[in-house]
Design a protein that fits this description.
The chain is built from 12 helices and 8 strands. 47% of the residues lie in helices and 13% in strands. It is of the alpha+beta class. Strand 6 and strand 7 form a beta hairpin. The radius of gyration is 25 Å and the shape is globular.
Length: 348
Protein backbone atom coordinates (compact mmCIF):
# COMPACT_ATOMS: atom_id res chain seq x y z
CA UNK A 1 0.00 0.00 0.00
CA UNK A 2 1.48 3.34 -1.02
CA UNK A 3 0.56 5.80 1.67
CA UNK A 4 0.92 9.53 1.24
CA UNK A 5 2.20 9.69 -2.32
CA UNK A 6 -1.28 9.63 -3.76
CA UNK A 7 -4.89 9.08 -2.91
CA UNK A 8 -6.03 5.55 -3.76
CA UNK A 9 -6.42 4.95 -7.48
CA UNK A 10 -10.07 4.15 -6.96
CA UNK A 11 -10.95 7.63 -5.75
CA UNK A 12 -13.30 9.37 -8.15
CA UNK A 13 -13.72 13.07 -8.80
CA UNK A 14 -16.42 14.18 -6.43
CA UNK A 15 -19.36 15.95 -7.97
CA UNK A 16 -20.54 18.45 -5.42
CA UNK A 17 -22.42 21.67 -5.03
CA UNK A 18 -20.13 24.12 -3.28
CA UNK A 19 -21.51 26.81 -1.07
CA UNK A 20 -19.89 30.20 -0.89
CA UNK A 21 -18.59 31.90 2.21
CA UNK A 22 -19.03 35.62 2.59
CA UNK A 23 -15.74 37.27 1.73
CA UNK A 24 -14.33 40.73 1.28
CA UNK A 25 -11.88 40.96 -1.59
CA UNK A 26 -10.59 44.36 -0.46
CA UNK A 27 -9.23 42.75 2.70
CA UNK A 28 -7.12 40.40 0.60
CA UNK A 29 -5.02 43.06 -1.09
CA UNK A 30 -1.34 42.48 -0.62
CA UNK A 31 -1.70 38.83 0.42
CA UNK A 32 1.53 36.88 -0.02
CA UNK A 33 2.24 33.17 -0.18
CA UNK A 34 3.50 33.29 3.38
CA UNK A 35 -0.04 34.23 4.40
CA UNK A 36 -1.65 31.15 2.81
CA UNK A 37 -1.44 28.92 5.94
CA UNK A 38 -3.48 31.50 7.86
CA UNK A 39 -6.15 32.15 5.22
CA UNK A 40 -9.31 30.03 5.30
CA UNK A 41 -10.24 29.00 1.77
CA UNK A 42 -13.08 26.62 2.67
CA UNK A 43 -14.87 25.09 5.62
CA UNK A 44 -16.02 21.50 5.97
CA UNK A 45 -18.48 21.42 8.84
CA UNK A 46 -16.43 23.27 11.45
CA UNK A 47 -13.02 22.33 10.02
CA UNK A 48 -11.17 25.17 8.34
CA UNK A 49 -9.27 24.34 5.15
CA UNK A 50 -6.44 26.76 4.63
CA UNK A 51 -5.40 28.25 1.31
CA UNK A 52 -2.00 26.56 1.61
CA UNK A 53 -3.71 23.16 1.39
CA UNK A 54 -5.74 24.14 -1.67
CA UNK A 55 -2.62 25.59 -3.25
CA UNK A 56 -0.71 22.32 -2.78
CA UNK A 57 -3.28 20.21 -4.59
CA UNK A 58 -3.88 22.85 -7.24
CA UNK A 59 -0.19 23.17 -8.10
CA UNK A 60 0.19 19.42 -8.48
CA UNK A 61 -2.83 19.26 -10.78
CA UNK A 62 -1.52 22.27 -12.70
CA UNK A 63 1.79 20.49 -13.18
CA UNK A 64 0.07 17.38 -14.55
CA UNK A 65 -2.18 19.32 -16.94
CA UNK A 66 0.72 21.38 -18.26
CA UNK A 67 2.85 18.27 -18.68
CA UNK A 68 0.12 16.48 -20.67
CA UNK A 69 -1.61 19.31 -22.55
CA UNK A 70 0.82 22.23 -22.51
CA UNK A 71 2.52 21.36 -25.79
CA UNK A 72 -0.87 21.18 -27.52
CA UNK A 73 -2.53 24.33 -26.17
CA UNK A 74 0.39 26.59 -25.33
CA UNK A 75 0.40 29.60 -23.03
CA UNK A 76 -3.34 30.26 -23.44
CA UNK A 77 -4.31 26.85 -22.06
CA UNK A 78 -5.68 28.08 -18.75
CA UNK A 79 -7.96 30.68 -20.31
CA UNK A 80 -9.43 28.24 -22.84
CA UNK A 81 -12.93 26.83 -22.55
CA UNK A 82 -14.25 23.49 -23.77
CA UNK A 83 -17.70 24.36 -25.06
CA UNK A 84 -18.94 25.83 -21.78
CA UNK A 85 -18.55 29.00 -19.74
CA UNK A 86 -15.76 27.64 -17.51
CA UNK A 87 -12.12 28.15 -18.34
CA UNK A 88 -9.71 25.28 -17.84
CA UNK A 89 -8.35 27.13 -14.81
CA UNK A 90 -11.82 27.25 -13.24
CA UNK A 91 -12.41 23.58 -14.01
CA UNK A 92 -9.14 22.48 -12.42
CA UNK A 93 -9.85 24.59 -9.34
CA UNK A 94 -13.23 22.87 -9.04
CA UNK A 95 -11.57 19.46 -9.37
CA UNK A 96 -9.07 20.45 -6.68
CA UNK A 97 -11.82 21.48 -4.26
CA UNK A 98 -13.75 18.29 -5.04
CA UNK A 99 -10.71 16.21 -4.19
CA UNK A 100 -10.20 18.04 -0.90
CA UNK A 101 -13.89 17.63 -0.06
CA UNK A 102 -13.60 13.90 -0.68
CA UNK A 103 -10.56 13.61 1.57
CA UNK A 104 -12.39 15.31 4.44
CA UNK A 105 -15.49 13.16 3.98
CA UNK A 106 -13.35 10.02 4.12
CA UNK A 107 -11.41 11.29 7.12
CA UNK A 108 -14.71 11.82 8.89
CA UNK A 109 -15.63 8.23 8.04
CA UNK A 110 -12.24 7.09 9.39
CA UNK A 111 -13.06 8.65 12.76
CA UNK A 112 -16.50 7.01 12.72
CA UNK A 113 -15.01 3.60 11.92
CA UNK A 114 -12.13 4.13 14.35
CA UNK A 115 -9.56 3.74 11.60
CA UNK A 116 -6.17 5.18 12.50
CA UNK A 117 -2.65 5.13 11.10
CA UNK A 118 -0.26 2.66 12.66
CA UNK A 119 3.26 3.67 13.60
CA UNK A 120 4.41 2.01 10.39
CA UNK A 121 1.89 4.02 8.38
CA UNK A 122 3.03 7.24 10.01
CA UNK A 123 6.64 6.38 9.21
CA UNK A 124 5.69 5.81 5.56
CA UNK A 125 3.96 9.18 5.51
CA UNK A 126 7.10 10.91 6.76
CA UNK A 127 9.31 8.98 4.34
CA UNK A 128 7.03 9.97 1.45
CA UNK A 129 7.20 13.64 2.46
CA UNK A 130 10.99 13.50 2.72
CA UNK A 131 11.20 11.92 -0.71
CA UNK A 132 8.90 14.58 -2.14
CA UNK A 133 11.08 17.33 -0.67
CA UNK A 134 14.22 15.62 -1.98
CA UNK A 135 12.95 14.92 -5.50
CA UNK A 136 10.99 18.09 -6.19
CA UNK A 137 12.55 21.15 -7.80
CA UNK A 138 13.01 24.34 -5.79
CA UNK A 139 10.71 26.11 -8.24
CA UNK A 140 7.80 23.79 -7.50
CA UNK A 141 8.49 23.71 -3.77
CA UNK A 142 8.42 27.49 -3.76
CA UNK A 143 5.06 27.53 -5.55
CA UNK A 144 3.65 24.89 -3.19
CA UNK A 145 4.87 26.88 -0.21
CA UNK A 146 4.41 24.20 2.47
CA UNK A 147 7.04 23.18 4.99
CA UNK A 148 7.66 19.59 6.09
CA UNK A 149 5.16 19.71 8.95
CA UNK A 150 2.44 21.06 6.67
CA UNK A 151 3.11 18.35 4.09
CA UNK A 152 3.06 15.64 6.74
CA UNK A 153 -0.40 16.75 7.85
CA UNK A 154 -1.70 16.64 4.26
CA UNK A 155 -0.14 13.25 3.60
CA UNK A 156 -1.55 11.95 6.87
CA UNK A 157 -5.09 12.89 5.79
CA UNK A 158 -4.47 11.29 2.40
CA UNK A 159 -3.30 8.10 4.08
CA UNK A 160 -6.41 7.93 6.27
CA UNK A 161 -8.62 8.50 3.25
CA UNK A 162 -6.73 5.72 1.47
CA UNK A 163 -7.40 3.31 4.35
CA UNK A 164 -11.13 4.12 4.26
CA UNK A 165 -11.19 3.55 0.51
CA UNK A 166 -9.50 0.17 0.94
CA UNK A 167 -11.95 -0.81 3.65
CA UNK A 168 -14.85 0.20 1.41
CA UNK A 169 -13.76 -1.94 -1.55
CA UNK A 170 -12.21 -4.88 0.31
CA UNK A 171 -15.01 -7.29 -0.63
CA UNK A 172 -14.96 -6.50 -4.35
CA UNK A 173 -14.16 -9.65 -6.32
CA UNK A 174 -10.71 -9.73 -7.89
CA UNK A 175 -11.45 -12.85 -9.94
CA UNK A 176 -11.49 -12.15 -13.68
CA UNK A 177 -11.63 -14.91 -16.27
CA UNK A 178 -9.46 -15.06 -19.37
CA UNK A 179 -12.61 -14.90 -21.45
CA UNK A 180 -13.77 -11.65 -19.85
CA UNK A 181 -10.39 -9.94 -20.16
CA UNK A 182 -9.13 -11.52 -23.41
CA UNK A 183 -6.94 -9.18 -25.46
CA UNK A 184 -5.52 -9.67 -28.91
CA UNK A 185 -2.49 -7.99 -30.44
CA UNK A 186 -2.63 -6.29 -33.84
CA UNK A 187 -0.49 -4.01 -35.98
CA UNK A 188 -2.09 -1.15 -37.88
CA UNK A 189 -0.92 1.09 -40.72
CA UNK A 190 -3.14 4.18 -41.08
CA UNK A 191 -3.39 6.06 -44.36
CA UNK A 192 -5.08 9.44 -44.27
CA UNK A 193 -7.14 10.37 -47.33
CA UNK A 194 -5.94 13.98 -47.16
CA UNK A 195 -2.24 13.18 -47.21
CA UNK A 196 -0.27 14.99 -49.90
CA UNK A 197 2.38 12.27 -49.91
CA UNK A 198 0.29 9.41 -51.33
CA UNK A 199 -3.13 8.30 -52.52
CA UNK A 200 -4.44 6.32 -49.57
CA UNK A 201 -6.57 3.76 -51.42
CA UNK A 202 -3.83 2.92 -53.92
CA UNK A 203 -1.21 2.58 -51.19
CA UNK A 204 -3.57 0.37 -49.23
CA UNK A 205 -3.67 -2.05 -52.18
CA UNK A 206 0.11 -2.05 -52.37
CA UNK A 207 0.37 -2.93 -48.70
CA UNK A 208 -2.14 -5.77 -49.04
CA UNK A 209 -0.18 -7.13 -52.01
CA UNK A 210 3.06 -6.98 -50.03
CA UNK A 211 1.41 -8.87 -47.16
CA UNK A 212 0.22 -11.46 -49.64
CA UNK A 213 3.83 -11.88 -50.74
CA UNK A 214 4.82 -12.66 -47.14
CA UNK A 215 6.33 -9.36 -46.04
CA UNK A 216 5.76 -8.20 -42.48
CA UNK A 217 4.02 -5.00 -41.46
CA UNK A 218 7.31 -3.65 -40.09
CA UNK A 219 9.12 -4.36 -43.36
CA UNK A 220 6.38 -2.72 -45.39
CA UNK A 221 6.27 0.34 -43.13
CA UNK A 222 10.03 0.76 -43.34
CA UNK A 223 10.05 0.44 -47.13
CA UNK A 224 7.25 2.94 -47.62
CA UNK A 225 8.28 5.27 -44.78
CA UNK A 226 5.06 4.71 -42.86
CA UNK A 227 4.23 3.99 -39.23
CA UNK A 228 3.22 0.47 -38.19
CA UNK A 229 1.48 0.92 -34.84
CA UNK A 230 0.92 -1.96 -32.36
CA UNK A 231 -2.39 -2.19 -30.45
CA UNK A 232 -3.98 -4.57 -28.01
CA UNK A 233 -7.75 -4.71 -27.81
CA UNK A 234 -10.69 -6.77 -26.65
CA UNK A 235 -14.38 -7.07 -27.39
CA UNK A 236 -15.98 -3.65 -27.67
CA UNK A 237 -12.74 -1.66 -27.99
CA UNK A 238 -12.37 0.81 -30.87
CA UNK A 239 -15.96 0.08 -31.86
CA UNK A 240 -16.15 3.19 -34.04
CA UNK A 241 -13.02 2.38 -36.03
CA UNK A 242 -10.78 -0.70 -36.25
CA UNK A 243 -12.36 -2.79 -33.49
CA UNK A 244 -14.92 -4.95 -35.31
CA UNK A 245 -12.57 -5.76 -38.19
CA UNK A 246 -9.67 -6.55 -35.85
CA UNK A 247 -11.78 -8.87 -33.70
CA UNK A 248 -12.84 -10.86 -36.77
CA UNK A 249 -9.27 -11.76 -37.76
CA UNK A 250 -7.43 -14.98 -36.95
CA UNK A 251 -3.73 -14.95 -36.13
CA UNK A 252 -1.75 -14.16 -39.28
CA UNK A 253 -4.78 -12.75 -41.11
CA UNK A 254 -5.10 -9.16 -42.29
CA UNK A 255 -7.75 -6.82 -43.61
CA UNK A 256 -8.30 -3.21 -44.63
CA UNK A 257 -11.18 -0.90 -43.96
CA UNK A 258 -12.08 2.71 -44.58
CA UNK A 259 -13.50 4.82 -41.75
CA UNK A 260 -15.22 7.80 -43.29
CA UNK A 261 -15.57 9.70 -40.02
CA UNK A 262 -11.77 9.80 -39.73
CA UNK A 263 -11.11 9.97 -43.47
CA UNK A 264 -8.62 7.14 -43.13
CA UNK A 265 -7.80 3.71 -44.54
CA UNK A 266 -6.57 1.18 -41.98
CA UNK A 267 -4.59 -1.93 -42.84
CA UNK A 268 -4.87 -4.34 -39.89
CA UNK A 269 -2.73 -7.41 -39.21
CA UNK A 270 -3.53 -9.85 -36.38
CA UNK A 271 -0.32 -10.81 -34.59
CA UNK A 272 -2.01 -12.84 -31.84
CA UNK A 273 -5.57 -13.76 -30.95
CA UNK A 274 -4.63 -13.94 -27.27
CA UNK A 275 -1.92 -11.73 -25.79
CA UNK A 276 -1.22 -13.03 -22.28
CA UNK A 277 0.53 -9.90 -21.00
CA UNK A 278 -2.18 -7.54 -22.25
CA UNK A 279 -4.87 -9.86 -20.90
CA UNK A 280 -3.33 -9.80 -17.42
CA UNK A 281 -3.14 -6.01 -17.59
CA UNK A 282 -6.79 -5.87 -18.62
CA UNK A 283 -7.72 -8.04 -15.64
CA UNK A 284 -6.20 -5.41 -13.39
CA UNK A 285 -8.16 -2.68 -15.16
CA UNK A 286 -11.40 -4.60 -14.73
CA UNK A 287 -10.79 -5.00 -11.00
CA UNK A 288 -9.98 -1.29 -10.73
CA UNK A 289 -13.23 -0.42 -12.50
CA UNK A 290 -15.20 -2.72 -10.19
CA UNK A 291 -13.68 -1.07 -7.14
CA UNK A 292 -14.30 2.40 -8.51
CA UNK A 293 -17.96 1.59 -9.15
CA UNK A 294 -18.38 0.04 -5.70
CA UNK A 295 -16.76 3.01 -4.02
CA UNK A 296 -18.78 5.57 -5.97
CA UNK A 297 -22.03 3.88 -4.99
CA UNK A 298 -21.17 4.14 -1.30
CA UNK A 299 -19.57 7.55 -1.59
CA UNK A 300 -22.70 8.99 -3.19
CA UNK A 301 -24.60 8.08 -0.02
CA UNK A 302 -21.87 9.57 2.18
CA UNK A 303 -21.96 12.86 0.30
CA UNK A 304 -25.72 13.12 0.76
CA UNK A 305 -25.27 12.87 4.53
CA UNK A 306 -22.00 14.81 4.79
CA UNK A 307 -21.48 18.13 6.48
CA UNK A 308 -21.63 21.32 4.44
CA UNK A 309 -18.64 22.35 2.37
CA UNK A 310 -18.37 26.07 1.77
CA UNK A 311 -15.72 27.86 -0.24
CA UNK A 312 -14.56 31.46 0.04
CA UNK A 313 -14.34 32.38 -3.63
CA UNK A 314 -12.40 35.57 -2.94
CA UNK A 315 -9.67 33.63 -1.16
CA UNK A 316 -9.48 30.86 -3.75
CA UNK A 317 -9.31 33.52 -6.48
CA UNK A 318 -5.87 34.44 -5.14
CA UNK A 319 -4.59 31.24 -6.76
CA UNK A 320 -3.98 31.73 -10.46
CA UNK A 321 -2.17 29.74 -13.14
CA UNK A 322 0.00 32.65 -14.26
CA UNK A 323 3.25 30.87 -13.41
CA UNK A 324 3.91 27.60 -15.26
CA UNK A 325 4.58 24.61 -13.02
CA UNK A 326 5.89 22.29 -15.72
CA UNK A 327 8.81 23.28 -17.92
CA UNK A 328 10.04 20.61 -20.40
CA UNK A 329 13.54 19.43 -19.57
CA UNK A 330 14.66 20.02 -23.16
CA UNK A 331 13.91 23.75 -22.99
CA UNK A 332 17.15 24.74 -21.29
CA UNK A 333 20.30 22.85 -20.47
CA UNK A 334 20.35 22.04 -16.80
CA UNK A 335 16.61 22.63 -16.41
CA UNK A 336 15.32 21.87 -12.92
CA UNK A 337 14.21 18.38 -12.02
CA UNK A 338 10.50 17.75 -12.38
CA UNK A 339 8.32 16.79 -9.44
CA UNK A 340 8.00 13.07 -8.83
CA UNK A 341 4.98 13.76 -6.63
CA UNK A 342 3.16 15.49 -9.47
CA UNK A 343 3.90 12.54 -11.75
CA UNK A 344 2.34 10.22 -9.17
CA UNK A 345 -0.77 12.41 -9.14
CA UNK A 346 -1.45 11.33 -12.74
CA UNK A 347 -2.39 7.91 -11.42
CA UNK A 348 -5.52 9.34 -9.72
Amino acid sequence: MRIGKRIAAGFLAAALTIGTLAGCSSSLRGVKKADYPALTAAVYGTQEIKLAEVNYYLRNLQYVYEMIYGSYYGEDMWTMTSGGPKTMEASVKESTLSKIYQIYVLNEKAAEWEIALTEEDQQKVEEAVDKYLEDTSEKILDEVGLDRDGLIELYRRNALANLVWEETVKDVSTEVSDEEAAQRRITVIALNDNSEEFVAEELKEEILSALEEGKTMSEIAEEKKLAASPYTLGEGDYADSIGPAAMALKEGEYDALHVEDYGTWYVIYCDSEFDETATETKKGSIVTERKAAAFEEVYTEWKAAAQTFEVDDDVVALLTMDTAMYVPETTTAGEEETSSEAEDETEN
